[in-house]
Design goal:
By secondary structure, the protein is α+β, with helices and mostly antiparallel strands. The protein has three domains: about 1-170, no CATH class; about 185-255, Endonuclease III, domain 1 (Orthogonal Bundle), CATH 1.10.340; about 280-330, no CATH class. The protein is built from 13 helices and eight strands. Strands 2-1-3-7 form a four-stranded antiparallel β-sheet, with no helix packed on it. Strands 4-6-5-8 form a four-stranded antiparallel β-sheet, with helices on both faces. A hairpin with a 6-residue loop joins strand 5 (about 80) and strand 6 (about 90-100). The protein is elongated.
Length: about 325
């Protein structure tokens, strides 16, 4: 009982100043000051700007018994708020460190938390269509609230027994899965792939122009969601993508140039060796004529090449590559 009272006090402290609330969801939601909203059966547990709780809707009867006796080895929720008549419930996992969703947010924790939320939802057979906006109010006497764990979770603690990897966190989110944190992930993954190529059009432009372009693209993606995010959340995603691409693009572009230069050098070396081999016979004849006492001028006239090329062949017979450009000029190979 003492544990439950402690968690309920923390729950009330972490509520938004004016959360959504309702007694009957069929009549829609109201926005009330926290002191009034805690009297309603349903309440908004998380702020639009940060998440203190991962919330799941267990839309099956006797859910508490299923958690205690049917789901062995999975993390226990901190709170189970159940309907006393059928046992259907909302479960809350309290986070030690909130996940921020403002324009200053980092995307990695959001991606990680969404992968955890997705995996926990599968394990607890939670309703995938649940919007995560409001939950059963654990402070309402209408529900039966049970405390299963007092200590809040870190994301690593939650993920420890879920067999999660960073690849799971980077999993592509489809638009019909874009609920709760999934909205952030859908917009992030969709927009970043667009941005990797789009930034090429902004080389030579300013960062502010590039950022505004990314924001507008993310806003359009957000408008296609059933429950759009706030502008601050969208701007935070856009800033993360814009900063990364702006920082990496000069490097990637230079890396591309370096690769092209390297390939060109390889092709030039190979081509040079092929072209040089064509003149092996002429070089042999020039050295033979020189050994017979002929001058460079006469050898050049005999072989129909320039005097400078003959001089190079005779002086450096072991380094034939140095005379390629001169010889090709003599034969008019370069127009």
């Amino acid at each position: 009982m003492q544990q439950l009272s402690f968690l309920l006090d923390q729950f009330q402290d972490r509520l938004p100043k004016k959360p959504y609330c309702a007694d009957n969801l069929d009549y829609g939601l109201m926005i009330m000051p926290k002191e009034i909203s805690i009297k309603y059966r349903y309440i908004q547990p998380n702020s639009p700007y940060y998440l203190h709780y991962l919330v799941f809707d267990l839309d099956y009867e006797a859910s508490l018994s299923e958690i205690l006796y049917g789901l062995v080895g999975v993390p226990l929720p901190n709170l189970v708020i159940a309907n006393p008549y059928n046992g259907r419930s909302h479960i809350l996992f309290q986070l030690k460190t909130p996940i921020y969703t403002t324009d200053a947010s980092r995307q990695r924790p959001i991606l990680y938390a969404n992968a955890i939320r997705h995996k926990l939802g599968e394990l607890f057979k939670a309703d995938p269509a649940y919007t995560h906006l409001v939950a059963k109010n654990p402070m309402s006497s209408f529900w039966k609230t049970t405390c299963l764990r007092e200590k809040p979770y870190t994301l690593n603690e939650l993920a420890r027994n879920l067999d999660l990897t960073w690849n799971d966190a980077k999993r592509e989110i489809k638009q019909d899965e874009a609920i709760g944190l999934g909205r952030n992930c859908f917009v992030f993954h969709t927009a970043r792939h667009w941005a990797y190529k789009e930034i090429r059009k902004y080389r030579g432009s300013t960062y502010s122009v590039w950022l505004e372009s990314v924001i507008q693209h993310c806003v359009k993606l957000n408008q296609g969601l059933i429950q759009p995010m706030t502008y601050g959340e969208v701007k935070g995603i856009a800033k993360s993508i814009a900063r990364y691409c702006w920082k990496k693009d000069p490097y990637c572009y230079q890396e591309f140039i370096d690769r092209q230069k390297y390939k060109g050098r390889l092709g030039g070396i190979k081509g040079g060796k092929v072209r040089s081999a064509k003149y092996d016979e002429l070089r042999r004849q020039a050295r033979d004529l020189h050994s017979q006492g002929l001058s460079c001028r006469k050898i050049a006239s005999e072989l129909c090449v320039s005097k400078s090329v003959v001089a190079t062949w005779i002086k450096c017979p072991s380094e034939p590559k140095s005379d390629i450009s001169a010889l090709e000029t003599t034969f008019g190979l370069f127009s």
